[in-house]
Prior knowledge:
The longest helix has 17 residues, at 391-407. The protein is α/β, with parallel strands linked by helices. The chain has helices spanning 55-62, 72-78, 90-96, 117-130, 143-154, 165-170, 172-180, 194-202, 210-222, 237-242, 245-256, 272-286, 304-307, 350-357, 368-382, 391-407, 425-432, and strands at residues 9-10, 20-22, 67-69, 86-88, 101-106, 134-139, 158-164, 184-188, 228-230, 263-267, 293-299, 309-314, 323-328, 361-366, 412-417. It is globular, with a radius of gyration of 20 Å. The chain folds into two domains: 9-18 and 72-113 and 238-432, Rossmann fold (3-Layer(aba) Sandwich); 22-31 and 49-64 and 115-234, 3-Layer(aba) Sandwich (Rossmann fold). The strands form four sheets. It has a seven-stranded mixed sheet, with helices on both faces. The model has no long low-confidence stretch (mean pLDDT 96). The protein binds pyridoxal-5'-phosphate (PLP). Pyridoxal-5'-phosphate (PLP) is lined by residues 114, 116, 143-144, 234, 267-274, 342-343, 387, 389-390, 418-419.
Amino acid sequence: MSPDNTTTRFLLPESRIPTTWYNIAADLPKPVPPMLHPVTREPVTPGDLEPLFAPQVIEQEFSTDAEIDIPGAVIDVYRQWRPSPLVRARRLERALDTPARVYFKYEGVSAAGSHKPNTAIPQAYYNKVAGTKTLMTETGAGQWGSSLAMACAYFDLACEIYMVKVSYDQKPYRRGLMETFGAKVTASPSGSTEAGRAALAADPDATGSLGLAISEAVEAAVGSGGSAKYALGSVLNHVLLHQTVVGQEAIAQLELADDYPDILIGAAGGGSNFAGLVLPFLRDRLRGGRAVRTIAVEPSSCPSLTRGTYEYDFGDTAGLTPLAKMHTLGHDFVPPSIHAGGLRYHGMAPIVSALVDLEYTEPRAVPQTACFEAGVTFARNEGIVPAPESTHAVRVAIDEALHCKETGEEKTILFSLSGHGNFDMQAYLDYFAGVLRD
Ligand SMILES: *Cc1c(COP(=O)(O)O)cnc(C)c1O
């Protein structure tokens, strides 16, 4: 292979936006263990999920078809920012003096600034078609909330968001963005649900967690009598499915570059941006193609993959959701209030957990100050300030590139730059002020 030696941005025209999502359930050597009903502990049926999700979303959650058509109405919205660029980090490579080729797939070009609209748009669309009036959700740092708020504005749905209190206080501009898109935002724990009231009774100063905010949003949706449904921004099979546009585009873009990755890297909170990048490459591997190393990076303060156990656990704090077999720290785990709010989830997607269990994916945990250091190095060379979540992938990409410098190997490294950090400047200011702890 003779990789392209001058091009920096590998771009595809709108006509190359993928027309199908890739479902890895069709190719895995053994099926991902099914979700279990929270009361009966029997495998959940599509009917069990009806109070929460639109019919087509439920169908996708259980599907084993390899390719699932992307609706035209969804592709029409994807055109606003897709295909996203694949960028060769040439200045970073020179700064590191590495023989490795380092690429990143940049999802910060969406209006919400991350990969999350890739699934927010289809979820809102399927709910619109099904007659839903309101979508309820939770958000940590606010990227998912702003993505769903935008999607609801496009498809004329009301949107109500429970935002983890620590982020509600730390990130007022994300809330401003959600409200600009027309959403109603409530700090969680709130007094408006039973789950929230119980948490406040136990600790009036509770800073909240994603697990608790999920309980509140699920409770609000189920209590709506059918007019409201729930939307989740990560973890579930259909969410990971929607994100596979990312990896499919990256494969085509690396073809333009005459290259193929040795290592794929992504930050993993619930696992969706990581999966979106790697699943299409793993399809190649599972069908007898080239093997690629994949590394899922998590914060050492919320280490579900590296320190959690692989067992059935609830998706939320109150135990309202089905149980999923996943790497988990326990559904009542409240992670420290690190700035990478999107990585503060106690569990991990069942599909990503299975990939780790099958040893297709290596998990790695990194402390937050090392991540911000990498984020600053990246910004000073590539100009983009990474989201605090994305700095976890940047850290490991830099570490792998430096390892290549030691060994002299010319590896090809591709990482997911899942979002920009333009709304997260307080986190960078705290880093510069030396007040961040590991
Ligand atoms: C939400 C978020 C993450 C973590 O979620 P995943 O589902 O693991 O991708 C990572 N990066 C950004 C920019 C996010 O907004």
